[in-house]
Amino acid sequence: MKQNNVEFDTYFKDYPNEAGFFGKYGGSYIPPELQKAMDEITEAYFTICKSSKFVSELRRIRKEFQGRPTPISYLEKLSGTVGHVQLYVKREDLNHTGAHKLNHCMGEALLAKYMGKKKVLAETGAGQHGVALATAAAYFGLDCDIYMGSVDIKKQAPNVARMKILGANVIEVTDGLATLKEAVDAAFSAYCREYKDAIYCIGSVVGPHPFPMMVRDFQSVVGVEAREQFLSMTGELPDAVVACVGGGSNAMGIFSGFLNDPVDIYGVEPLGRGASLGDHAASLAYGSEGIMHGFNSIMLKGEDGEPAPVYSVASGLDYPSSGPEHAFLRDIGRVKYDVVNDEETIDAFFTLSRLEGIIPAIESAHAVAYATKLAKKMGKGSILINLSGRGDKDMDYIIEKYGIR
Questions:
Q1: Under 8 Å between Cβ of 212 and 26
Q2: Tens of pLDDT, residues 10-69
Q3: pLDDT band (50, 70, 90) for residue 180
Q4: Could you tell me where the beta strands, DSSP code E, fall in 196-287?
Q5: 289-318 burial: b if 16+ Cβ within 10 Å, else e
Q6: In the chain, what is the straight-line distance between the N-terminal and C-terminal CA atoms, in Å?
Q7: Pairing of strands 119-124, 198-200
């Protein structure tokens, strides 16, 4: 399959290039001293992670510890509300710790162990990445620092408790809006001081090279499983694949399994309260090219050209940029990116819970909301949704803000 001169038969060999670029997006825009640490990680990834010992160990962990493969579930009752389109979900909510995040955290922590590092550190928004990394650190006997904005700490109290129980040091970030962007700022600053003994396990397909590539590769297990499972269940490929996009790790995970297939792919961003700057976090829909956190992509900017304030009802999506690979896939037209707002998302949250007995993470509910809208437009066919996480972490917040509908 080929689109806009991009050959998808060899896509994962061609992208990113050696400098970490997906077209004009990506790269590594960081201080020279920190670049040495990134080069060390890149070299380790291309050697250790290609060894049979590493791959075998990761496969064993996925099977025996994470509980992979996660299943695909057919949403019979929800499908009945949208006409003749059949809806399915890839159940990453059933992955250990309740979301897709452990897929790359176990890989990154295993890499850190092989490199002789003593600590892992990271940022988190919704807390799922923090919980996953704290879990990986406990598994491998590593120290763990998690940076989290004070706003998200209040919204995601259950996950904060989980991180602490697992032995992680949760560091509250109070700068700026005190959400995900500020948590990333703080984690990067810490890494600049501690890179000799620690590895920064970034939580999405963002950041300087090699992280967008590494996280995609570790998350690709979702797409590989999903493609095989869907074919086994139905005898054919889905007509469409849908996933939510903040930084975009869960989306790149499932998208990677279908890029070379005649399947429509949709990334769903958070429109939040509306299209005004500061009321959403839909960078691909409303942003422009810019550099932040060490990589070039599409970002939301204020009048000063700096990252703009963002908002989403989902703590894991309130980031003012998107992974560079998403920006590239948007530009070449292989993936279509669209938005849903808070109200549509919360409706989907309750609808999926009531009809199917699956309480989704608010992040994942964005994808469910969009898929139901898309189904009504399609009229027939099938849609596979990546249910990136479960909604346990969101219970207190949902009840406080929206009550029980």
A1: yes
A2: 999 999 999 999 999 999 999 998 899 999 999 999 998 889 999 999 999 999 999 999
A3: confident
A4: 198-200, 240-244, 264-272
A5: ebebbbbbbbbbbeeeeebbbbbbbbbbbb
A6: 45
A7: parallel
- Please state, in angstroms and rounded to a whole number, the distance separating the CA atoms of residues 132 and 130: 5
Burial of 181-199, coded b for 16+ CB within 10 Å and e otherwise, reads bbbbbbbbebbeebbeebb
| Active-site annotation, residues | 101, 123, 388
Residue 153: count other Cβ atoms within 10 Å of its Cβ: 20
Coil, helix or strand at residue 61: helix
- Helical H runs in 9-67? 11-14, 32-48, 52-61
381 within 8 A of 85, measured Cβ to Cβ: yes
pLDDT above 90 (res 137) = yes
Token pair for 10: 């060899």
DSSP SS3 for 74 = strand
Q: Which one, of 341, 353, 354, lies nearest residue 387 by Cα?
A: 353
Paired with 99 in beta bridges are 389
Instruction: Annotate 40-53 with b (16+ C-beta within 10 A) or e (fewer).
Output: ebbebbeebbeeee
Contact criterion met (CB below 8 Å) for 331 and 208:
no
Please tell me what DSSP assigns to residue 399.
Answer: H
Q: What is the pLDDT of residues 311-346, one digit of tens each?
A: 999 999 999 999 999 999 999 999 999 999 999 999
Q: In what order do the strands lie in the sheet with 25-26?
A: 21-22, 25-26, 295-299, 288-292
**Cα angle: 286, vertex 289, 293; to 5 degrees:** 105
Residue 4: what residue type?
N
Contact partners, residue 348, CB within 8 Å, separation at least 6: 340, 360, 365, 366, 368, 369, 372
Structure tokens at 19: 């400098």
Domains observed in the chain: 22-62+103-211 (3.40.50.1100), 67-99+216-402 (3.40.50.1100)
Mean pLDDT of 127-137: 95
The arithmetic mean of pLDDT across residues 68-87, rounded, is 98
Amino acid 249 reads S
Using DSSP's 3-state secondary structure scheme, residue 385 falls into strand
Q: How many CA atoms lie within 13 A of 68 on its CB side?
A: 24
Residues in a beta bridge with 337 = 267
